[in-house]
Every structure is written in C-alpha cells, then in structure tokens.
Amino acid sequence: MQNRFRPDRQLSVRMVITMFLLGLLYVAFIAALVALLRSWILVVVVAGGLLAAQYWYSDRIALFAMHAQEVSAQEQPHLHGVVDRLCATADMPKPRVAISRMDMPNAFATGRNADHAVLCVTTGLLRRLETDELEGVLAHELSHVAHRDVAVITIASFLGVLAGLLVRFAFYSELFGGRRNDQNTALLLALIMAVSAVVYAISFLLIRALSRYRELAADRAAAMLTARPSALASALTKVSGDIARIPTEDLRTAQPFNAFFFTPALGDGATLFNLFSTHPSLERRLEQLAKISVQLGEPT
Question: Among 70, 130, 141, 287, which one carries the catalytic annotation?
C-alpha cells in the first residue's frame, strides 16, 4: 500500500525479524505439544482456528471489549472531518471510526489491513484535546495502519497468549484419560506447563521490544505528516497527566489493550531497563518530538 507516511525501514526489519523468531518459536511449541499430547490434529486445529479468528475478527473483538461503537459522519462530524483530512494528506483509505464511551483519554487502531481497519477514540480524549492535538494523536494511530504494524502486533500478541490457552484447554478436556495413570498425567501437565512458560517468556520480551519501537516510529511518522510535532507532544503530556487521575479500577479494565493504546492505561513495568514496557517512557517520546521540531524549524 502506497501512502505519504514517512517509511520506516528499521520498523519493517524489526517486524520481519520478530515474526520470523516468533514463527520458529511456535513451530517448536506446536511440535512439542504434538509430541506430548500425541494428538496433532487437535493441537493444529485449535491453534490454527484461534489464530484465524484473532486475525479476521480482531477489530470486532477490540471494539466489543472496549464497549465501542462505530459512528457516522452525521453523528461525529468533527472527528470524521479530522480523519478525512489526515487520510487525504496521507493518501490512504479512510478507516471506520468508532467511539468508546470511556472517560479515560486514549485511542487505538486495529484491523488486519488498511481496508479493514478501525480507528477508535474515547469520549475522554475528545473532551480533553484541541483540534491540532487530536490530529497528532489520530495521525499516530493511522501510521500504525499505514505501516502494517497493527496486523503484526495483533498476531504477535495472540501468539504470546496461545501457550496459556492451549494449556487450559488441555487441562479441562479429557485428554488425560484412562490411558495414563495419575503419575503420568502429573508429569505430562508439568512438561506442558514448563514448555509453555518458556515460550511465553521469550515471546513476551520479543513483543514488548517491537511494541516500544513501533510507538516511537508512529510518533515520528505523525510528526512528519502533520508538521506539528509540538501538538503531538502537547497531546502526549496532557493525556499522560490526565490518565494518572483516572480511578485505578477503570484503568485495570483497559490495561490488557496497553500494546494498542496511544499511551498505556497503567504503568506496565518500567523496570529492568523497560524490558517489560509496551511503550517507551514519556520523556523519551517528548525528547524525540523536540528533535523533530528543531529539524522542521517549528516555532516554539
């Protein structure tokens, strides 16, 4: 797909490497499960079916989980107007537009490609941001669609939890029936748990590393497209500060979608050199935008 968002070769390389490593990891994981469970048809069908469902219906799943609904241009003329202008500037298809009735200020994009993408914002975001700030946030989210990293992170995130899903399925099914005694069953469960833990830990780190970089890439692309990095920086500062004042209980509901949000709903583990974070630090993002502002000669 051709568009006017600034290409990011480093992002493309990182996505290819991450998916290649995750692919190798999960081929080994499925092979280990087949060897342990001796039922390759069941494992492959369940894993393939869940992955296909996540890929094809990721937009519907996300909107349902965030209590969001699509809105027309008649219902939200201002929001649609901003999206129309950005898509025209970027020369890309316009995604569907949705609103989540949440006070938490945030936004995300999801969907398997540009032709099946949906851009969702919360009412809290619309209420707090000025038009130029909103343009920066939406340009950030549109760049995820244009760079195709929305589909990549969707697949990668799903693979990260596949281990746990398969373990639960095996545990609650009748796979551990009369052909094995209790000792063999316990050993088999322990082996599955051990393999799953290793797979999850490796995939977790790979996905988080890609997620942090893609957020910086989206900030860069949005700043270059709008030529107003200071507006995006202002939105980042405002949203991050306001999220800190949202009740923790409300933020926990949205936390599973941290990897897709403009800013994380809750701090996600900024320890061990931020290895566990889905987003780079606010300071890192603002520093990058300040450098772009100098490059563009934007007045302060």
Answer: 141
